[in-house]
Amino acid sequence: MKQADTITPPFFLANNVNSNASVTDADRTKLLLDSSKNAIYKLDEKKRLLQHFITFRTDIVAISRVVDEEGESNLEEMFDKTIPSKAAFISKGNNSELAKKIIDLHIPSRLLLSHLLQNEKKKLDAVARLRQKSKEAKQKRDSLTVFIEDFVKKMERLDELVLLKRQSSQFPNIKFPTLSTVQRERKYDEKRIPKNSGHCICLFCGHPSINEPIENEAVVEFNTKVDEIYTQKLSVWTSFLSAKEKNENTVFPKLII
Length: 257
Description:
The chain has 10 helices and no strands.
């Protein structure tokens, strides 16, 4: 049994876990084994990542114990089993073994991140009440939170690449756009639901929660301006043709010299 399958999310975090059911651990592992220039984690980066998990092991297990006490979950057990106990595993492990270990740490880390971000928000709210500058508050971000957040974001990017490769193989004649980091991090907004009901469902996966891209606003504004200019020029051209036709049909008296 895969370790990630035995995770029990705490009840107050379960709804915050944004997992993609169509991406399996086998999909993730296959792409994670990639060591090309554009790989999410090259071999050396996999080793450094797992070394950081060993460094933070005590803190992660302790915080997971608190999460387990607040809700019905087994994060402490999962992290205790999954995080390598010795650095020897990293130095001797091959690419496949390291990739599997990273995959096993994926879901527990996402659950832990929800707890860490909640605590961070509470601290920032307390700082705000003390009227300290937000810049100072950002400089004091907990290193564990930053590390787990970066790991989770990269794994989310891994899922996106899995889906992108799948779409590209299913629709070889379609060129899918590459989204920027800002675009990927946008959340669903009910205010941006397309007015056209035909645009509210994804044509590829059937997902019903589609938002109108913010970039479309600039496109609409540009097209509206083009239409206005075209209408103005068409009016001038139509007036010219009308006057020209009128002049051609007018019989002028002959000049007598």
